[in-house]
Amino acid sequence: MRTMTATEVARNFASVLDRAEHGETIVITRGGRRLATLSPATAGNGAAIKDFLDSHPVDEEYARDVDSARDVVTDEMSAAWRDD
Questions:
Q1: How do the domains of the chain map onto residue ranges?
Q2: How far apart are the first and last CA of the chain?
Q3: How far are the Cα atoms of 49, 53, 57 from residue 60, in angstroms, in the given order?
Q4: Residue 26: CB partners within 8 Å, gap ≥ 6?
Q5: Which of 6, 39, 50, 74 could, after both became Cys, cross-link 30 (CB 3.0–4.6 A)?
Q6: What are the helix and strand counts (H, E) for the chain?
Q7: Partners of 26 in the β-ladder
Q8: What is the pTM of this model?
Q9: Could you tell me how far CA 46 lies from the centroid of its own chain?
């Protein structure tokens, strides 16, 4: 893990992003205090989300509640835009 000041990061932003892209975590400081941590983004292709959704059945009651809420909002918005 590398530590850099905010000024160093600002002056070398492209290379800092390159470092993060290659797996390095950078701690950013200002006035000697830790301000932020820049780390590589997690790589994902959605497989974990699909697996999660596949392993949890749909709650039909909740789905009906969502549909009902959509109907109310749609009806209210339609009424607001009608020319009476």
A1: 2-38
A2: 65
A3: 20, 14, 9
A4: 1, 2, 3, 4, 9, 16, 19, 20, 37, 38, 39
A5: 6
A6: 4, 3
A7: 2, 38
A8: 0.53
A9: 13
